Amino acid sequence: MSALPNALVAQSGGPTTVINSSACGVIQAAVRSGKIGKIFGANHGILGVLREELFDITAEKPETIEALKQTPAAAIGSCRYKLKTLDKSRADYERIIEVLKAHSIRYFFYAGGNDSMDTADKVNHLAADSGYELTCMGIPKTIDNDLAFTDHCPGYGSVAKYVATCAMEAGRDTEAIYTTDTCTILEVMGRNAGWIAAAAGLASRSPEDAPHLIYLPEVPFTFEKFVRDVKEVVADFKRVFIVAGEGLKDAAGKYVTVDTGSFNRDSFGHVQLGGVAEMLKAVIEKEVGIKARFNKLGTNQRCAMHFASLTDVNEAYLCGQKAFEYALAGENGKMVTLIRNKGSKYNCSAGLAKLSDVANGEKKVPPEYINDRGNHITQALKDYVQPLAQGQAPITIGPDGLPVFMRFEKKFLAKKLADYE
Amino acid sequence: MSALPNALVAQSGGPTTVINSSACGVIQAAVRSGKIGKIFGANHGILGVLREELFDITAEKPETIEALKQTPAAAIGSCRYKLKTLDKSRADYERIIEVLKAHSIRYFFYAGGNDSMDTADKVNHLAADSGYELTCMGIPKTIDNDLAFTDHCPGYGSVAKYVATCAMEAGRDTEAIYTTDTCTILEVMGRNAGWIAAAAGLASRSPEDAPHLIYLPEVPFTFEKFVRDVKEVVADFKRVFIVAGEGLKDAAGKYVTVDTGSFNRDSFGHVQLGGVAEMLKAVIEKEVGIKARFNKLGTNQRCAMHFASLTDVNEAYLCGQKAFEYALAGENGKMVTLIRNKGSKYNCSAGLAKLSDVANGEKKVPPEYINDRGNHITQALKDYVQPLAQGQAPITIGPDGLPVFMRFEKKFLAKKLADYE
Q1: Gap between the Cα atoms of A131 and A120, Å rounded
Q2: For a Cys-Cys bond, which of A89, B68, B146, B171 suits A84, CB 3.0-4.6 Å?
Q3: In chain B, which residue's Cα lies nearest the Cα of A407?
């Protein structure tokens, strides 16, 4: 038993509805294989590795592990700690290798976006350089859907389904009460890529349906055009429902609004955005002269387990499972990708891409998915997104009528190394 | 056939997830009775009556009417137009009677909150005074749950279920990523009564669960206590999840924050609130020194058909059905109420209250439902709310993976009267 290698699973960045499904896929595949000693979880991502805060997932109940598929956010714990280049953060990278060695970890599975793939890639190279046998595999995870080399990212299908449904529902609300509340703005996430805002466009099956206007970070935003667009829709439908991505930028690439608070950058150096909807509301009330209100789903859009896409949950699980299976088969330094197979019926297989390639890529919404006027989506976008939002993932409802989520007991391993800060 | 009286159904105020279920109850009961000629809908509530914009619901397809139970917001159309006293708005009231007469309407069913019950009551008296035989029945509707003389209001159970689930889900998000995003504030509706904020408390099954703190308009808000509360929770759990009602007031009864924009009052004279969450976020970042973010569900909380309470949908239908049946049996000037029957298994029957009584009542969250420290709820509140949030209302999913809602064709009646402004 003690001869078997151990595995480590870590989660990184903003939580999603299905990142736990990927963890479940890795863990259950590893247990089934019989080739792994213990599976550890890194408490709050790479921070947990640096701090040697590891817990034994193999000691958790099988039903707890199974319930990962019904639990949103990041049950192992996530963080936004960003490692820099090998030069600048060398101590951190060396500490990671040291912790992995101390606990005989030979497999490192890291679910995250491109920053995390970069970290996994660097850890992998440093391990190889130092002669420590290690397999590093990445699992795609981001609601932003901006990773290259994969058809789409686990997490996106669920946020697409939820945000489109919210647009549809709040759109009916505006339609019902437009005689006073004429405009509703739905602000959605998406720092640089407008995939989430675009997905809300699934709600408009006919021109009168919400959303009437969709603004993406990919299209330079101008107030003049915006006001014209709004006036035109109001003339046609007596109301207007707008979806705006939080990261709208002007032609110079400057964010249209930036939270200037003291906490306006996350630890990855990303600017924290806020206030796009408030700003658009003010512009509409002043320039168009109609009452506007806004809904900001915030983190609720990325953890809406109660309405998750079954396709998304299944694909997230597949990515985790395949990450393990590929690793066992000898692959290393790769991220699992989703490949959309040809054919009339939607179907995805798992593929692989180099961590270093993924780390440096970014996939924005391409021009053919955006209408000519730059204020809505095309049928091609719908054809791309619709299959990802299909099916209702099962949830368990408690006697109080609400969903039941799992929580790990997190039995931490005794530390073998000195503290590290 | 032409001898049979006609009926009018109107919807008022902010939409809810289940106000259409009540309309369905009235309409189907009226059709079944065989005692009603035509059933008309008032396009956008009392405005539709004043403007003589009535459409023939009896001409709509039966499946469209049935699908009301799966459609949020207000399919007949709502508005916020408020009639004042008989003295001040006499012309409006007389116009209403005139329109009802012109279309041989003998039954008027009005779904709304206490302002609407007041309107229905005044129309009823004026009709009686002018010798026009009319039956006016009210149907309770408000997510705010603040109507007196009824155990609870249709619309509340669904918003309770949704908001509690959102708190539970976003709470897991904060728990996953608290090392950077330490605080999340969920702002919910509730101008004067904190029923919605209180319902979010269902999510906290254990002390570590969100929400850790709940602030209701019923408890005078002070920043000093708020900051102390937040620091204490962060010391215990390293994170804090806060639910705040939009209508928080200080000890003098002044709103803690008021949107001072030009559209800051609705047509009922209510102050339009906004910014409680933004304000709390700023206070926390400055005074506690942790990063905070906020989610503002806005209108999405009152139309979340995709996760509606089956109990709520059924009770809303019952209220509509009973409004018709009571009217046919000779009741007049009453609102249907819900009476919680004694016994270990939850069960409600329909009752009646005078429109004039309901118009002047307001039910706030009572002290026994709020904890001693004024920052959370008690078990008694949970016992009250839990049964209302039970069950998943059926929805129909289209080939695109999203819910399918109905929309009336709205074949408008030829106008018989002069225009009215």
Answers
A1: 16
A2: A89
A3: B172
Residue A165 token pair: 């449904």
Report the distance separating Cα B262 and Cα A95, nearest Å: 57
Q: Would you say A121 and A356 are in contact if contact means Cβ atoms under 8 Å apart? A: yes
Structural tokens at position B194 = 């904190």
Question: What sign has the CA pseudo-torsion A184, A274, B165, B163?
Answer: negative
ipTM of the complex: 0.96
Question: Using the beta-carbon criterion (under 8 Å), do A177 and B296 form an inter-chain contact?
Answer: no
Digits of tens for pLDDT over chain A (421 positions)? Answer: 458 999 999 999 999 999 999 999 999 999 999 999 999 999 999 999 999 999 999 999 999 999 999 999 999 999 999 898 889 999 999 999 999 999 999 999 999 999 999 999 999 999 999 999 999 999 999 999 999 999 999 999 999 999 999 999 999 999 999 998 899 999 999 988 999 999 999 999 999 999 999 999 999 999 999 999 999 999 999 999 999 999 999 999 988 875 444 444 444 444 444 479 988 998 999 899 999 999 999 999 999 999 999 999 999 999 999 999 999 999 999 999 999 999 999 999 999 999 999 998 899 999 999 999 999 999 999 999 999 999 999 999 999 999 999 999 999 999 999 999 8
Cβ distance B45 to B12 under 8 Å? Answer: yes
Check: CB of residue A213 under 8 Å from CB of residue A231. Answer: no
Q: CB distance from B421 to chain A under 8 Å?
A: no
**What's the CA gap between B376 and B214, in Å, rounded?**
5
Question: Are A149 and A139 within 8 A, CB to CB?
Answer: no
Q: Which of A280, A221, A320, A247 is nearest to A16 (CA)?
A: A320
Decide if A266 and B180 are in contact by the 8 Å CB cutoff.
yes
Burial class of B410 by CB neighbour count within 10 A (0 to 12, 13 to 18, 19+)? middle
Nearest residue of chain B to residue A268 (CA atoms): B180
Q: CA torsion, points A312, A318, A323, A326, in degrees to nearest 10? A: -150
Cβ–Cβ contact B75 with A under 8 A:
yes
Report how far apart, in Å, the C-alpha atoms of B378 and of each of B144, B152, B174, B188 are: 19, 18, 23, 19
Beta strands in B115-247 (DSSP E): 135-140, 183-188, 213-215, 240-245
Could you tell me if residue B77 is left (phi over 0), alpha (psi between -120 and 50 degrees) or otherwise beta? left
Task: Render A118-176 in DSSP notation, one character per residue.
Answer: HHHHHHHHHHHHTT---EEEEEE--TT---TTSSS-TTHHHHHHHHHHHHHHHHHHHHH
Q: Is A408 left (phi over 0), alpha (psi -120 to 50) or beta?
A: beta
Is residue B311 a contact partner of residue B389, using CB atoms and an 8 Å limit? yes
